[in-house]
Amino acid sequence: MARICTRILYLAAAILLSLPVVSCRSTSHNTHSYRPYHERRNRGNAPSDDQSSTAGKEKKKPIPQEGHGLVSDEWARLDIKLGRHDNKKLYKELKRWLGTPYVYADHTCGEGTDCSGMVMEVYLAVYGIKVHRNSAKMLEQNCVPIDLDDLTEGDLVFFVTSGDGHVSHVGIYLKDHKFVHASSSRGVAVDDLRQNYYATHFHTAARVKR
């Protein structure tokens, strides 16, 4: 009987020794699939759904606008190229008046003005010269007529816009055929002497007596 028990013990020991060794630690978190180094390095920077949906699309940049060739962008509405010798004080003052509505017999910047009222105020502010309130009398009493080709910055241009043949409109000449005036339909604006209406109604160019 003892011999039989001994054989059973040997047999059991042999069976146990033949079984594979199994670790009690779980290996579910230690199995990794291979990923190239650059993918593993950027693992934390994977694009979101929004980012991936726009990936490959080039971001549109605003198209730069071509400059006006002016000293500063603030002169853009005048559409005139200014040089070193241009009277910046005159342009700055006129810029204040641009867009002022036309109001007969008024001369208030930003609120309302007529043509001679605007010229009177600008001349006083820029040159310290007081000119007549009426355009016809302004030409008669404050100016010396000059040839159209002799127009320079700050000179005045006069027009006959009524049927009686009398001067009834005035503007301040700038350069490049441009002048500023108080239009009855658009308020203070910049126009070109070569435009059909102004060329047709042009009367004379004049220089204010200093």
Question: How would you describe this protein?
Answer:
It contains seven helices and eight strands. By secondary structure, the protein is of the alpha+beta class. Strands 3-8-4-5-6-7 form a six-stranded antiparallel β-sheet. A two-stranded antiparallel sheet has the order 1-2. The radius of gyration is 44 Å and the shape is rod-shaped. The protein has helices at residues 2-18, 37-41, 49-54, 88-97, 115-127, 135-142, 196-201; strands spanning 107-108, 112-113, 143-146, 156-159, 169-173, 178-183, 187-192, 202-208. Mean pLDDT is 76; it is low at 20-74. Helices cover 31% and strands 17% of the residues. Helix 4 (88-97) runs antiparallel to helix 5 (115-127). The protein has a domain at 73-208: endopeptidase domain like (from Nostoc punctiforme) (endopeptidase fold (from Nostoc punctiforme)), CATH 3.90.1720.10.
